[in-house]
Amino acid sequence: MEERGALPVTKPLLATLHGQRQARPPVWLMRQAGRYLPEYRALRAEKGGFLALATDPVAAAEVTVQPIRRFGFDGAILFSDILMVPWALGQDLTFGAGEGPRLAPALADHALAALDRVPARLDPVYATVARVAGMLPADTTFLGFAGSPWTVATYMVAGQGSRDQEATRRYAYADPAAFGVIVGAIVAMTIEYLSAQIAAGVEAVQLFDSWAGSLSPEQFDRWVIAPNRAIVEGVRARHPGTPIIGFPKGAGGKLPAYAAGVAPDAIGLDETVDPAWAHAVLPAGMPVQGNLDPLALLTGGEALDRGIDRVLAAFGERPHVFNLGHGIGQHTPIAHVERLLARVRG
Ligand code: 1CP
């Protein structure tokens, strides 16, 4: 059995991330703490908004634990957001009703150097982590996370989410030196952020590169592989025993290059990846996480059952963490999540 400090790893999710395949895969779902849960919507309404919720350690800890109480997932993911890092880098962050998040000023027309950093904006997150660490069942693994630099930069440059990240892709071509400064600032802040989450009590971390799929191979090497590798090296130097999951959504044929270049402890696969191909091309023994289509979960019935069975069969020989290929949709019925758990756990 893998050793972590003096203690054997007995938590199924953590053991899997350390490379030990389980008879039934541990399971958690990306975005499991959120709007599909009535208890989340109630607390969010009471707090008056996302940021108020995410910066209140008592409330954020409660939201983190809500899906564990209801479903008993093997992993609890910290309730926070990838845009906390831009906020700490000095942009204003707002989550308006009915629209996506906004960051101001947008870096498309404003220099990063003109912003004042406020790292203390991350302090409530560490307080949340410490609180949650004392609330989880003994066999539940606690996951921290951050956005990857490319994905975070797309929001910082455009000031909001964008369909194909065009403004940021153009910026990266037009002024790679200035874009490199933005990415470098995100890398440095993210190493601090993840290290502090680990020091406060998370047991593994995930790097979400949600928009990794929008880059050409050469730009992918520069803005996805290199900065994620820098974060992995920086965090690993301080916390060598803590597994890091890399999730380069949409990377497709560039997944082997990502796995070799970033060398995360485990790799997340989105639902467009053929599991048999991934098994053949990824480094032997590297744990994989994924990759049920979130729309199969939303649909339920046969689509859900067949989808689960295919994922279970495909990853039968590797350390595997059962998850979706991307976040759970907000209109997903609770009963479908219960059905998923019953089937995955056999
Ligand atoms: O209640 C609300 O209205 C807010 C909705 C919401 C939630 C529940 C946002 C705004 N963020 C979150 C929490 C969140 N975000 C978590 C918490 C833990 C969990 O997984 O349960 C995590 C891991 C994230 C990560 C995140 N935020 C990503 C990466 C993963 C992904 O889904 O691709 C991204 C891209 C974001 C940005 C963001 N934050 C919120 C929204 C609506 C968005 C997407 C905006 C856009 O692209 O337009």
UniProtKB/TrEMBL annotation:
The gene is hemE. It comes from the Bacteria. Catalyzes the decarboxylation of four acetate groups of uroporphyrinogen-III to yield coproporphyrinogen-III. The keyword Membrane does not apply. Residues 26-35, 143-159 form the Uroporphyrinogen decarboxylase (URO-D) domain. Pfam families: URO-D (PF01208). It comes from Sphingomonas corticis. The record marks 81 as: Transition state stabilizer. GO terms for molecular function: uroporphyrinogen decarboxylase activity. The keyword Lyase applies. This is Uroporphyrinogen decarboxylase. It is an enzyme of class 4 (lyase). Pathway: Porphyrin-containing compound metabolism; protoporphyrin-IX biosynthesis; coproporphyrinogen-III from 5-aminolevulinate: step 4/4. The lineage of its organism: Bacteria, Pseudomonadati, Pseudomonadota, Alphaproteobacteria, Sphingomonadales. Homodimer. NCBIfam families: hemE (TIGR01464). It catalyses: uroporphyrinogen III + 4 H(+) = coproporphyrinogen III + 4 CO2. Belongs to the uroporphyrinogen decarboxylase family. Its EC number is 4.1.1.37. Substrate binds at residues 31-35, 81, 155, 210, 326. Keywords: Cytoplasm, Decarboxylase, Lyase, Porphyrin biosynthesis.
